[in-house]
Amino acid sequence: MSAPDPAAPAGAPAPTNGDPVSDPTADVLSPLHDEHVALGAALTSFAGWQMPLRYTSDLAEHTAVRTAAGLFDLSHMGELEVTGPQAGSALDAALVGHLSALAEGRARYTMIVDEHGGVLDDLVVYRLAPERFVVVANASNVAVVRDALRERLTGFDAALDDASLRTALVAVQGPRAEEIVASATEPADVDAVRALKYYAAVPATVAGLSALVARTGYTGEDGFELFVDAADAPALWRALLAAGAPHGLVPAGLSARDSLRLEAGMPLYGNELDSTTTPYDAGLGRVVRLDKTDADGDPLPFVGRDALAGRADSQPARVLVGLQGLGRRAARHGYPVLASAEAGAAHVGTVTSGAPSPTLGHPVAMAYVTPEVSAPGTELAVDVRGRAEPVRVVPLPFYRRPR
């Protein structure tokens, strides 16, 4: 998610930084694996799963999501259910957000950090009932998040259940997403699905199957994510493809997902976020609720609070910025950012994600740079394989969908 959607995992290089090396013998197969094979997808090893990288072309799939809709398999994501009378209080103590204040049927983007404030993962948490939450984690971090939550729930009347392998997740993203999902939804549930606000969820019957339908996504477009039992995933996938065909929907893979989230300025764990990065470094300090209190008005402690409180009002050593390429060559993950295009220019940062932008027609990148060169309009350069390519600091996101 986001707010960024935490749907992209970190166990392999981002597709726009070069295709990950396929090793199907080591991978978990998605419940939709046979569907992807039937559609001729190029499959790749990603975060311990074999997932579709693309079906036709990266450009065609990216463009379909911006202009019509794309269908994504997100079954590699983790779903961790936290239940019990103190489930909300336990999550308040475990995560940086104030989850006990979350209304039933709503979702929140948040993070789990270590005691030093470093990000272990970014998450989306859904409150499905007063005593039932679902924490959605990035694929390669499921074990880390699960183990940390299990430890942090100690002493609370709350239980943790890892439902990841029992749950499939598919997403319909794009300006036609609502029409497509509504057309596949049982008539009694259509109004509730259409009325969903951003970061809200509702149970519904879609294609005759029980689903949790959430209005969330990781592309910068309107869209829905549908959670179903793993055994129901193929039927749902085929029904959504059929419902979406008249509206221009196409299946889309990890490569398009990555270029879409980059245009939307959404962070990827392992690129913009990791355990050496605090939420404040990434410009996401808004998700840290230092002000959360209990029913008596006393401050609620949580893991990493003291470290983050010490960083809240201080100038970070590095700032996450957007970079617009002024030439044709795209910056990529790990490339050095330079103070200028002149020979011998000082190194002032590092690119975290970069690619040509199909929507905007020029290269874009995100990078951590020193504060003194972080103002929008600042002209810098990126060392692209030994050649200094000019770039300009611009506000994030690069792309906002038309309203």
TrEMBL record:
Span list, region Disordered: 1-27
Stored InterPro entries: GcvT (IPR006223), GcvT/YgfZ/DmdA (IPR028896), GcvT/YgfZ_C (IPR029043), GcvT_bac (IPR022903), GcvT_C (IPR013977), GCVT_N (IPR006222), TrmE/GcvT-like (IPR027266)
Recorded catalytic activity of this chain's protein: N(6)-[(R)-S(8)-aminomethyldihydrolipoyl]-L-lysyl-[protein] + (6S)-5,6,7,8-tetrahydrofolate = N(6)-[(R)-dihydrolipoyl]-L-lysyl-[protein] + (6R)-5,10-methylene-5,6,7,8-tetrahydrofolate + NH4(+)
Compositionally biased residues, Low complexity: 1-20
Annotated Gene Ontology cellular component terms: cytosol; glycine cleavage complex
GO BP: glycine decarboxylation via glycine cleavage system
Gene Ontology MF terms: aminomethyltransferase activity; transaminase activity
Entry's EC annotation: 2.1.2.10
Gene3D superfamilies with a match to the protein in the record: Aminomethyltransferase beta-barrel domains, Aminomethyltransferase fragment, Probable tRNA modification gtpase trme, domain 1
Residue ranges of every copy of the Aminomethyltransferase C-terminal domain listed in the record: 318-399
EC class of the enzyme, as a word: transferase
Record's keyword terms, sorted: Aminotransferase, Transferase
Occurrences of domain GCVT N-terminal (ranges): 32-292
Binding positions (substrate): E225
General function of this protein: The glycine cleavage system catalyzes the degradation of glycine.
PANTHER family: AMINOMETHYLTRANSFERASE (PTHR43757), AMINOMETHYLTRANSFERASE, MITOCHONDRIAL (PTHR43757:SF2)
Family according to the record: Belongs to the GcvT family.
Quaternary structure note: The glycine cleavage system is composed of four proteins: P, T, L and H.
NCBIfam families in the record: gcvT, PRK00389.1
Protein name, UniProt field: Aminomethyltransferase
Organism, as annotated: Cellulomonas fimi (strain ATCC 484 / DSM 20113 / JCM 1341 / CCUG 24087 / LMG 16345 / NBRC 15513 / NCIMB 8980 / NCTC 7547 / NRS-133)
Highest classification ranks of the organism: Bacteria, Bacillati, Actinomycetota, Actinomycetes, Micrococcales
Name of the coding gene: gcvT
